[in-house]
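Quick note —
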Amino acid sequence: MKIIYFGTPEVATIPLQHLIESDVEVVAVVTQPDKPVGRNKKVSPTPVKKLAEASGIKVFQPENLKSDVSLKGLKELEADVFVVFAYGKIIPQSVLDIPKVGTLNIHPSLLPKYRGPSPVQSAILDQAKETGVTIIEVDRDMDHGPILAQSKTLISADDTTPDLLEKLVIMGSNLLIQNIGVHAEGKAKLLNQDHTQATLTKMVKKGDGQINWSDSAEQIYAQFRAYHPWPGVYTIYKDKRLKIGKMSLPNSDFTGSGVPGSVILNDNGIIHITCSTGAVELLEVQVEGKSAMPVADFVRGNKDFSKSVLGS
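Predicted structure written out below.
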């Protein structure tokens, strides 16, 4: 069975590695063009490209998937199935029509719930107890196609987006390997999604990380976990952004006091911030333009911090 894999970031190397180690033949990968990265803006290949080249796999990096050159190159490989995960661009129908059997997508949610670009962040924000991964056959609409396979998992109380995403992608990669052969043989039983139950997620923006201290402590901690490491969460202190690098929920017997956003310094030097209900504990902060530091060091250099109200 010939496979062409579409993916770009580091997490997208997980399904590719599973495919390489399986009994399918990965004849090519399609990934984003090399781009400048880091402070020095050094042009670097994508993680998927690095893995493909190390494995002797042909690499396509089209600027435009609709171009005649791109279409011709993909058609010549006569792939049976395309597999897509975190490619980063919308794949046109002219490309989806190329494989003999169809195109499969690994989506990190229990479709039809959490369609769209931020399913993992949205599940954490909703304080959902469980989520999962779905293998679908791609059709013309986003995350809309019939389901080939699906698997559930619990969301732990401290899962961040990278934690949960990696867990789901590993699950999805195993699920893909278990089902891709049956699909290619035309023996798979595809299940149409119940589109009346679909929910949509939005693209995460930098401003989504601003904390509203009038939310509950549980909701703010969920926001922190969902937006770690990007865009991160922040509050306002002395008219500047104060990024919260690390936080936690204190013991349940600590309820907080004062108006939401009040900074409380206890006798042990622990900093809590009052929320509408409960409080969160700050562990690491970063003033815009400066390096991150333990909150204890920040307090020593900002004596009035423990008497302030954040976000105002």
